[in-house]
Amino acid sequence: MQVDYAAPASHLYDPDLPTANAVLVSLSCVATRYAANPSQDLALLGCSLAQTLTAPEYAESGLITNAAKQLLHDWQALLQAHQTFAMQQAVTEFVAQSTTLQ
């Protein structure tokens, strides 16, 4: 991978994760924790790491670029599912409280 160090880093690049491999290892750890105990926080972290992987600095190959796009799409879908579930829970609790007050 050749990086032009004279060019400013994109806002997605994380200097603490200097290579695509480092981002993928971090994302794998989050995915493992998510599989064991799904949560909105882990989905948000996975989505953030997947978005980081889309930075041009990590585009070492077409495979990485395509995988980054797919991972971002998948983590966004998981995050959306958590947000939808949370909204449904809030509505259900509100309706239950409204019924109790009558």
Kindly describe this structure.
The chain is mainly alpha-helical. The chain contains three helices and no strands. The chain has helices at residues 20-36, 40-53, 62-101. The mean pLDDT is 90.
Which terms would index this structure?
102 residues; mainly alpha; single chain
Quick take:
This protein is an all-alpha fold and 102 residues long.
Number of helices: 3
Overall mean confidence score, pLDDT: 90
Give the helices and strands as they follow along the chain: HHH
pLDDT < 50 stretches: none
| Number of E-type strands | 0
The portion of residues assigned to helices is: 55-70%
Largest sheet: none
Rg (CA only): 18 Å
Strand residues, percent: under 5%
Beginning-to-end CA distance, first to last residue: 66 Å
Overall geometry comes to elongated
What structural category characterises the helix and strand content? mainly alpha
Topology:
Elements (H helix, E strand, L loop, with lengths): L19 H17 L3 H14 L8 H40 L1
